[in-house]
Design goal:
about 375 residues; alpha/beta; Rossmann fold; six-stranded parallel sheet; 14 helices; 8 strands; globular
Length: about 375
């Protein structure tokens, strides 16, 4: 196991009725900016619950965060923050809303020329407005980490950054929110969480038994409970397990002391930036190709994954790897996500453009062994297409 430092101080309020308790988590006399997306929280009652909970505070609202939060939209929030001396952000929504709030929190104190440099140039974040979260969609794990992904529409770029300064002070996780979600968002959320685990698990062995077993437990839970939630979104127990799995998938625990990949995410971000494919859908497209193209360097862990997750017992290693990939594809498609570029109307001509963009940005020689270069990226995207 590799050396690591693990510290996650995000406070989680899990279960029914927890929104009512957020006033106790917000510093006294805070001036709050409530950040959310479209009108769904006003239809399902979450908005009213939040307003009731913060009624004793001065608060202002910033709505309209997009499914892939844009830099352009986020920057408009800075005017409200400055005009009203906002000192606390409350994000109510899924991963996009929370990621937007994190970027806004950091951008408000950024002293450089352009807050976009936090993402484009990896400029360090030294301070941020504190924030809390009311999660409405289990998927990204952003409610318990310091990660954020933002798109810049004019550049057709989608980039990520991480900072401990934007780790939420608290996050409310009420599984009842799953009941009102569109079915595609339920499937997307399960697959997103699944691939988060894979990025930290499917690399190479370092004898990190605890991390592996927890990761495997999350994967097995998603496989078992995902179809239940998709079939019946009022199934509270299944929804609770999915929600907590999504949080545990990316709160730093299973990634501590182990090598990590993130090739699938880096390539997937390009598909979203260029073609506006849902984030989880891009992961469903890319991961099978990564597993296939990098099967030799990942062989030991893919075989472990095949045996422990899919109960595949085969003395032929190549057949075991192929069956593990096939079972992964079947699971993604059972959750309602297609796994080929052509399923989303994307022509293979886009592959060269993606490779060129990643090369120009320096996003090559990636992965746990830095072995994913231009040729590998092209092969990943061309797999099964």
């Amino acid at each position: 196991m590799n050396n690591f430092v693990f510290n996650n101080q995000a406070r989680v309020l899990f279960g029914k009725g927890q929104i009512a308790n957020i006033a106790d988590e917000i510093p006294e006399d805070s001036k709050i900016l409530l950040i959310y997306g479209g009108g769904s929280i006003k239809l399902n009652g979450i908005y009213d619950q939040v307003i009731d909970a913060i009624s004793e505070f001065e608060y202002h609202e910033f709505e309209g965060i997009e499914p892939n939060p844009s830099y352009e939209k986020c920057m408009k929030a800075l005017e409200i923050i400055e005009e009203n001396e906002i000192d606390f952000l409350l994000a109510v929504g899924g991963g996009s809303v929370v990621d937007a709030a994190k970027f806004i929190a950091a951008a408000a104190f950024f002293e450089g020329n352009d807050p976009w440099d936090i993402l484009a140039l990896n400029d360090e974040v030294f301070d941020a407005i504190p924030l809390g979260v009311v999660l409405t969609l289990p998927a990204t794990g952003t409610e318990m980490n310091g990660n954020s992904v933002i798109s810049r529409t004019e550049y057709k770029e989608k980039l990520a950054y991480t900072s401990p300064f934007v780790l939420p002070l608290f996050s409310v996780l009420d599984p009842q929110v799953i009941e009102s979600l569109p079915k595609i968002q339920v499937g997307n959320g399960v697959v997103d969480a699944f691939v988060h685990v894979i990025e930290q698990y499917l690399t190479y062995p370092v004898d990190a038994k605890i991390q592996d077993r927890i990761a495997e437990g999350i994967l097995l839970t998603l496989i078992e409970e995902g179809p239940k939630v998709l079939a019946d979104q009022t199934n509270y127990d299944a929804g609770a397990n999915i929600m907590w799995s999504s949080t545990m998938a990316l709160n730093g625990l299973i990634g501590s002391g182990v090598p990590q990949d993130w090739t699938t995410h880096m390539i997937g971000h390009e598909l979203t930036a260029l073609h506006m494919v849902d984030h989880a859908q891009t992961l469903a497209i890319v991961l099978p190709g990564v597993m296939h193209v990098m099967k030799e360097s990942k062989k030991d862990k893919i075989i472990q994954y095949a045996k422990r997750i899919w109960s595949i017992e085969n003395n032929d290693e190549q057949k075991t790897i192929k069956e593990a990939i096939d079972r992964t594809i079947e699971f993604f498609e059972s959750m309602g996500l297609k796994t080929r570029l052509k399923d989303y109307g994307i022509h293979v001509n886009s592959i060269d453009k993606i490779v060129d963009r990643m090369e120009a940005r320096g996003d090559i020689n990636i992965g746990e062994h830095k072995l994913v270069g231009i040729d590998e990226i092209r092969k990943v995207l061309d797999y099964r297409n």
